[in-house]
User: What shape does this take?
Amino acid sequence: MTVLAVRVNRSLSRVCDAYTGQVIALVEPAGQLSRYGLGRLMFLVSDTLATLGEGTPGTPLALGDHLNIRELAADDVAEQISGLMGMEDANTLARQLAPQVSDLSAALSRPDLANTVASRFGSVRLIDYLRASLILAVDLAIETVGVAQPPALTEAVRSLAGVLAERYPGRSIELRVPPYAAVQIGARAEAPVHTRGTPPNVVETDPDTFLALATARQSWTRAVAAGSLVYSGTHAADAARALPVFRPH
Assistant: This one.
């Protein structure tokens, strides 16, 4: 196995573990989620289980494009969630969800997972499909219980920061989210391109604030006013144009 393949396998394993851990943390202890929260989680779990069985040789979408399609499909997903919930109460939904979570844990532990899958949102690398699902699980955790599992938060922040670098190639601004991520982006075509060392434009924030900014839960202006986001450099504030990365709702 090549060094690259080993790294890819390690990354996939890390994302699988983080996703599974976040899902389990949402259902244990019981009673944390509302009826609709349970429905959202049921959709994520059932959709993941269905997608794992749909390997495909097709050309996969980039993570950023996959997130775009998920965002556009929000109304359809809401209908799917309503269908899954039916008329059941929260206790019944929780009982129905428990075996699905066990199935998810077992499925993500298999050694023969496909590299590329045919999700309902298009062909995508499995690791990117799981990253997108993990972001949604983290968003649900923050909305409902106020905190995400650290490994899941780490992967969500890294994934969303990576999408920013993918969408806005360049090296004029450095976005720092210590201790999880640091990426360089070019948020404005006319901004100076930096080629060595640290760019002159730096944006820094904490993981929770970055996640809120990236998923449209908080605005740049409010983050700056609260002191949870700081920036320096003539063009650093241009990074605001790149946010949010993904609107889950």
